[in-house]
Specification:
There is one protein chain. The chain is 38% helix and 23% strand. It has five helices and nine strands. The strands form three sheets. Strands 4-3-2-8 form a four-stranded parallel β-sheet. Strands 5-6-7 form a three-stranded antiparallel β-sheet. Helix 1 runs antiparallel to helix 2 and helix 3 packs parallel to helix 4.
């Protein structure tokens, strides 16, 4: 499978998905580079932007990724820097529906949101991304546009089916499901 950027293929270079080992390596590189770059930055606004991580998509992958970044920042890296405090990292999980883990029972969604909150993750629901730039993410909540300054945006919002499904459908004449 590959990430589905819902008609915005140019976002792929700005917000990598997590579907392969190579994707995981790239995400790790971006996360660690964000901390290293923030360490060398003098402007407090730039430090804040470098230490703001935005995860788009509140399904299982996005929730797990946001939690892992929080644990890395608040536990693993706390003693590794002189100029920054990794515990001050901001992790924002954006989900387009009314709750994270929308395919799970609502009670489990609430427990997951509470667990992420305890880790320091900001969970924003009903937040639909409208633009990703190298230094920011813009999203719509209701009718209000919001923008976050961030150099590290990670995509966990959708999956494209394998091309094999399309090939099989063409060969067999069977219609594909819209999901």
């Amino acid at each position: 499978t590959r990430p589905n950027y819902f008609g915005h293929p140019h976002w792929e270079g700005l917000a990598p998905g997590l579907k392969t080992l190579e994707d995981a390596t790239e995400i790790r590189r971006r996360i660690l580079l964000a901390f290293e770059t923030a360490e060398r930055e003098a402007d407090p606004r730039q430090v804040a932007a470098r230490l703001t991580f935005v995860v788009i998509g509140g399904g299982p992958t996005g929730a797990e990724l946001a939690g892992a970044i929080a644990e890395l920042a608040r536990d693993t890296l706390t003693q590794n820097f002189r100029a920054i405090n990794p515990a001050n990292t901001r992790i924002v999980l954006l989900e387009g529906t009314d709750r994270i883990l929308p395919t799970y029972h609502p009670k489990l969604s609430r427990k997951a949101a509470a667990s992420l909150h305890r880790l320091g993750v900001e969970v924003r629901t009903n937040a639909v991304v409208t633009d990703i730039q190298p230094t920011s993410v813009t999203f719509l909540v209701g009718e209000q546009n919001e923008q976050l300054s961030s150099y590290t945006v990670l995509w966990a919002a959708g999956v494209r089916p394998s091309p094999l499904g399309h090939l099989l459908a063409r060969q067999t004449g069977v219609a594909l499901d819209s999901n």
